[in-house]
Design a protein that fits this description.
Helix 1 packs across helix 2. Strand 6 and strand 7 form a beta hairpin. By secondary structure, this protein is of the alpha+beta class. Strands 1, 2, 5, 6, 7, 13 and 14 form a seven-stranded antiparallel β-sheet that branches. Helices cover 22% and strands 24% of the residues. About 2% of the residues have low confidence.
């Protein structure tokens, strides 16, 4: 089990904070999700009553700050789970000049977590402001009494056109090698050789959109959507990456190729 969740409620119940962290990477994913949960609680618990007076810009800044803090805390835990040092730990793990956690062999530590945090704020007129902040593909949904719903999260997956454009816009000098968005195709054992999700113009390849199963693609979920991955180019060996999302907390080795830990933030107002 690699997943964690947490919640906090203010004394007057005007603020409710709910969170889900879907870890990946075996035990390292569990460390990442637990660290995210614990960091969220330690960040908000001392100020949970103060939070009742925050406006949306203040919440936005605090959530952005929190994601950065969680990301850094996960690095500390990967380096030294017993808390003995950050730069170099007894288990031989080190942090390189790019902030990547590595074993003594030089291989990167794999693992991280998604993060979806939802905040419900009761306004003075009885209405609610709901804020969603997320990295990764753990979906948050706001469901009304009439069963209509709105998404409170952005799906940061390799089939997201905006994520493709974000990655392509990264500076080539800072990111000389970038993640490639590919479909999972049958009998294609090297992921970087699988079909590209997007054409160079940023549009999805229509032949895979119109007939995915006829072209050997695999479904990924109960909605029968084609499986997609963000992978490194063939020229990458030691730090080779194959991940099902384009943003996450942890996964430090993938950051050099464009994986982001910056959250998307959505704001909804409801009765």
């Amino acid at each position: 089990k690699e997943d964690s969740f947490g919640f906090l409620i203010s004394k007057n119940q005007k603020v409710n904070i709910l969170s889900v962290f879907d870890g990946h990477g075996g035990y390292n994913g569990l460390v990442a999700s637990n660290t995210a949960r614990d960091t969220l609680k330690s960040y908000f618990a001392p100020k949970i009553e103060e939070c009742e007076s925050w406006n949306v810009p203040t919440w936005t800044k605090n959530l952005q700050d929190l994601f950065k803090i969680i990301h850094d805390k996960i690095r500390e835990q990967f380096l030294s789970q017993n808390g003995q040092g950050i730069r170099k730990s007894p288990n031989g793990r080190v942090k390189d000049q790019n902030g990547i956690v590595r074993n003594s062999s030089g291989d990167p530590i794999h693992g991280g977590t998604t993060a979806s945090i939802c905040v419900s704020l009761q306004e003075s007129d009885g209405t609610y402001t709901v804020i969603g902040a997320n990295t990764g593909d753990s979906t948050a949904v706001l469901i009304s009494e009439d069963t209509s719903f709105e998404f409170l999260s952005e799906d940061h997956g390799p089939d997201n056109e905006q994520e493709f454009k974000r990655l392509q816009s990264l500076d080539d000098k800072a990111y000389p090698k970038k993640l490639i968005f590919v479909y999972d195709k049958a009998k294609c054992y090297k992921k970087f050789e699988c079909p590209r999700v997007f054409l160079p113009d940023g549009k999805k390849d229509p032949k895979y959109v119109q007939n995915p199963w006829g072209h050997g693609l695999h479904p990924t979920n109960v909605r029968y959507e084609p499986a997609v991955y963000a992978v490194t180019p063939q020229s990458v060996s030691r730090d080779a990456t194959c991940i099902a999302m384009t943003r996450a907390l942890g996964d430090f080795y993938a950051g050099q190729f464009g994986l982001s830990s910056t959250p998307s933030i959505l704001v909804k107002r409801t009765q």
